[in-house]
Fold this sequence. Notes:
Elements: H1 4-11, E1 32-37, E2 43-47, E3 52-54, H2 66-73, E4 89-90, E5 93-94, H3 99-120, H4 128-134, H5 143-157, H6 169-173, E6 186-188
Antiparallel strand pairs: 1-2, 3-6, 4-5
Helix pairs in contact: 3-4
Amino acid sequence: MLNADQQALSNASVTDFLILEYQGDIGGRVAHTTFGKRADGTPYVVELGANWVQGLGTPPDGPENPIWTLAKLYNLTNTYSDYSAIETFNETGVVNFTYLLDDFDDAYASLEQAAGVLLSQNLQDRTMRAGLSLAGWKPKKSAAAQAVEWWIFDWEYAFPPARMRSTSRFALKLTMSRTKALKSSLLPTM
């Protein structure tokens, strides 16, 4: 059975290739494990990877995400993610630092503008960390800001900002406004 990469290369008439998988299992971030036990002794299954169907489609006439089509076909249980109702916590309990989500979005917007200049003028690239810092986002001394950065950035890309370049195609493709734009497009599957 061919995976998507093998199929794409094969379709392009490329026959001399080797695909390396970073992890021991094929499938990227899709993985699960067992955890604990139910009353009858059977283990719970915990998803470790892809838990959301993102981008359900473009209503009313646009195409539907094929993963969402499969999720509905197989009656996967889902829960709406209401990103307008985020609660934030620190070691003492509930503490509202959701304003930092907007602060990060503002810094990211500045980083995108700077990345566009770097690309258009063929200038030296920088890490996302450097770009965010130049835009005023400096979470090193704030646990709340670090949590926001993980929530918006690390979780989405599976890498911290120091490991990505500011002009990478991934950085320019995604709008980092989870608190606004993703409200209606994410449904966790269980």
